[in-house]
Amino acid sequence: MLTLQLDALTTVALALVLLGLGAQLKKHSYWLRQLCVPAPVIGGFGFALVVWLLRNQQWLDIKLDTAMQTPLMVAFFTTVGLGGSLGLLRQGGKILFVYLGACWGLALLQNVVGVGMAELLGIDPLLGIMAGAVSLEGGFGAAAAFGPIAESLGTSGATTAALASATFGMVAGGLLGSPVARYLIDRKKLAVKADQVDTLQALEKANEAPSVPLDAAVLLRLLTCMLVIMVLGFWIGDALKEHLGIVLPVYVGAMFVAIILRNLNDRARVIEMPDNAVSTVGDISLGMFLTMAMMSLKFWELEQLGLPLLVILVVQVLIMVLLCVFVLFRLFGGNYDAAVLCAGYMGHGLGATPNAVANMGAICDHYKVFSYKAFIIVPLCGAVLIDIVALPLITWFINAFS
After folding, report:
1. Is the pLDDT score of 88 beyond 60?
2. What integer pLDDT is reported at residue 115 of this predicted model?
3. Is there a smaller number of Cβ atoms within 10 Å at the N or the C end of the chain?
4. pLDDT tens-digit profile of 135-187?
5. What is the pLDDT of residues 346-385, one digit of tens each?
6. Which residue windows are transmembrane per the record (predicted)?
7. Is 282 among the domain residues?
């Protein structure tokens, strides 16, 4: 069998081509748009599938140099931290805290279920964690970040298992979120009307920031700040590992340094970091990082893990459905807004925030009533605030069961 070795620059170039191809396929595919499948997943997953088929037929083995994957990953999570204003917590009101608490509780529940099922099925507990909050509530970013950590601790195939679980969760969250909400609304015969909450309207205004032109000066200032934060994050991670024996994903330190800097800067206004510039750099970093992560999927490593992994994921999905129907719907208020919130919860609890927004949009379009509450709270919690508790919790589980 022939072997084709791609260097780091060629791998990055290929990732950009696949990212663009994925975006075009999504643009022209109704079902891909409905499921909110990210462009990096479409392009990268398709390439990984081709690599697997070529290798399986003993024709060609393609090897990638993903040296740039880690810096891109850390850059993305740095932008996540720079977008995490803790001041929003004080303005969100009671419902924000209730929803956020449910999200934090889900991170614990998914890890407990993952470890418990792994022990029951006789596989490595770390693989159960990969099929828990790492890949489901954490999504592709956390899966690609924590998988190599588990592999470095001796769990073969952890990255592939985590990314495959994230793919499964994204599809399940996109398919089931809206039907669960419709079941709740129709079965409970809810009044189809949404609350108008003044505190949430204030929250939306507080979260709005004026866009500025993305010129060289703005990008230079932002990239300089990001690189300094990334270096500090690497130092923190190394120090914790050397002195306390705590193994952290490389991006965690940078993300928390970024959160601290963002909230200090909100008070002092020393550095101007426009949100549109931060989100643009973050989108580019995430797109390249996830494409490279999906390109690196090794399907052949799942041959012995397929059935146990599938069993764990099916159990996780069933628990999510039961949790939304019998517990969270009442906790969120038992009304139309609560049903829409459940659709969002299913979306990002199993997949990603775009899934959540798509689920809620489908429900609101169907009933012709917009849930202001849900569309403010779900993206805010799903995109940023979950990680404040979820990431340290995942790290604790990995260290505890390694």
Report:
1. no
2. 95
3. N
4. 998 887 788 888 988 998 888 888 888 988 988 887 788 778 888 999 999 88
5. 988 997 776 787 788 888 888 888 887 787 788 778 766 7
6. 32-54, 66-89, 95-114, 161-185, 218-237, 243-264, 276-297, 309-329, 375-398
7. no
- Confirm if 28 and 84 have CB atoms less than 8 A apart: no
How many residues make up the chain in this entry?
402
On whether residue 156 sits in a domain, the answer given is yes
- Quote the tokens at residue 105: 């509780």
d(CA 21, CA 44): 10
- The neighbouring-strand residues paired with 63 are 5
Query: 3-class DSSP state for residue 215?
Result: coil
- Type of residue at 81: G
Write out the H or E segment, with its range, that includes residue 63: strand 60-63
**Is 336 domain-assigned?**
yes
User: What is the tally of structural domains in the chain?
Assistant: 1
Alpha carbon dihedral 79, 83, 138, 156, in 10-degree steps, equals 20
Q: Reduce the DSSP state of residue 61 to 3 states and report it.
A: strand
Q: What is the pLDDT of residues 275-294, one digit of tens each?
A: 778 878 888 888 898 888 88
Asked whether residue 318 is assigned to any structural domain, the reply reads yes
